[in-house]
Structures are given as C-alpha cells and as structure tokens.
Amino acid sequence: MTRTNQRSTIAKPIPDKTSRVATERPARVLVWGALGMIGSHVTEALVQADCNVSVLCRSRGSVSRPWWASKVDWHEIEDDCPEKTMERAISSASMIINLAGMSGAVASNAKPLDSLDQNCRIQLQFLEACRRAQHKPHVVFTSSRLVYGPAQSLPVHESHPLSPRSMYAAHKLCIEQYLQIYAEMNALTYTVCRISNAYGYDSLGASRGYKILNSFIEKSLAGQPITLFGSGEQTRDFIHIDDLTALLLRCCLMPAAVNQTINVGSGEACRLVDAATLVREMTGGPPLCFQPWPEEFLAVESGDYVSDIIRMQDLLDYTPRYSLKDGIECTLHSYIEAQSRKADRTEPMAVA
Description:
Low-confidence stretches: 1-23, 348-352
Mean pLDDT: 88
Largest sheet: 7 strands, parallel
CATH class: Alpha Beta
CATH topology: Rossmann fold
Helix content: 25-40%
Number of domains: 1
Shape: globular
CATH architecture: 3-Layer(aba) Sandwich
Strand order of the largest sheet: 5-4-3-6-7-8-13
Oligomer: single chain
Strand content: 15-25%
Structural class: alpha/beta
Number of helices: 11
C-alpha cells in the first residue's frame, strides 16, 4: 500500500513530495466542528504540525475526548447565546475551517426547519461574528457535491448548473452565497470546497448513513451484509480522509484559493456495487444485500457523480494520493487496530 503522510502539510514551511510551497504558518486556526470525522482529522493534523489551534463546537456531552483535547483551546457554543462564544473563538483566529452543520439529505427533507436553523441561521450568526471581529479571517467552508443535483455531464465542473434535491444541499448553497456577500462587505475571505464522498477512520463515533463507504466497512467488519438500494450501479467519487485533510489545509494557505469555489474529490468514478464488493472481499464479510429504493432516499438521489478536479489541482497544487483500494485498506487497518485496543482494555485480568 502506498501512503504518503500529509499530517505536517501546514508546518513551517510546508514542503511535500509533489510541490515546493513555502508559506508562513497562520497565527491561529479555528476548527468549527472539530468533533466530526473530518474535523477530528483536520484538528489532529494541525496539532501535530505544532499550530496554534482553537476548536468551536457544541457541548461535548458523552463524546469521548480525543488525544489532542488538552492541546487546543475549547469554545463550546451555548444554545441561548451562541454569538458571544463565536466572537471569542473568532477573535484570535486568522484562519477558520468551517465544518459545522446538520448533515444528511434525507434527514433535512424530513425536518426542513431543523436544517434551516442548524445550517443557515447559525452560519449567519457566525458570519456576523466574523464581521464584528474586523480582522477579516479566511474561512474554508465545506460545502457538498449535492449542490449540483443530477449531473448533465461527467465529470462535473464547478460551472455545472446548480439544482439541489434536498434541503441540506439547498442550505449549503445558501451558505456559499452568504460567504460571497460577506466577502464583498470586506468582512472575510473564503474558499468553498464542494466535497465528494469522504471516507476514512472515524475515531470519535460510529459513522452515520451519509458516510456511505464507512458504513460499508463497519457493517462488513461486524459480519453484517452491506445493503445497496437498487442494483448499486450509480457511481460516486470517494476521497480518503488524509487527502481531504491535506486539501482543506492547503485552502487555508494557498493565495490562489482565496474567494474561490473548488470541487474536492478524487476525480475517479466508482460504482457503489464495486466499492461494496471490494470491501466485502477485503473483510471476508457476508454477501451483498440488494433492496428496492426507499421513497425518501430516491427523492434525494442525484445519480452518477465524479468531480472535475482540474481547478483543485491547479489552485492547490495537489493530486489525491490514495487509490480506492489503498484507502479502504488503510481504513480497515485503523478500525481493526482500534477494535484490538478496545478488546485489550476490556479483557479481564487473570487471577493467580
């Protein structure tokens, strides 16, 4: 398996094996949504690169503390007054990686007002806090490939018509417009990343349905059949979390990414049935299971998708390094290692 470590991408300077980019380290990076899968990897990479890191999140509740918890400044949002917490978190941050929001296309259609509050409203509160801060932070916003809707041509370029099929996608698109408006007000700069299907080890909690490849891996490791709707012929563009992390960090540092909208994906199309078959073969799991499309899932299904990543490669000087097979192998290895550590901790002590 070929794997290049991108954990130090944001270090000073930031050389890597594909380009020679030298950029000063930002004074402080704020990660909003650090307890999600993407956020935890991004925060870990920043901490390992010895950056000054703050995190903004809702109350941690029962979420287990990551190893880097003591190495960052925590800001927990209070529902009754989120603006004050946001202002404190933003006040010292020159770069902000914004991963916050309610995820899930099906869930957003079932509860559209919740999606509005957890996406658009709270983002406006955040943007107002950025405006009041008056130091013009750079915001990297994680949007979604779902803003495009059904593809009229493949691969999908950033100029493709926009036609969201869910409240989730519509609200992502709305936030993209918010960022453009606030940039015109000179309150901030931004990079919008329209991310394809991300996958990789999730150390902070079980994957949800929208992380489809993770759900395949977890089910197959647990000896459960992977379920596909229809024939599974629809294609997706899967990007490994290490590649995604490297790209998000580059959006913080590359001047060419300022006020740009960029597709972030692998640029490779794979049928869901082929991805599921690969996972099953690598885990020795049970045969695949095929079911008719549930109505609520069919309503948001956008069909085949693969990203046109030419702009990403040009602006960020980076090409994803994980093949799908290598990425799945790496993810499986991480899950198996985690299961082994958990088993070691719970194994009863022998009595002499």
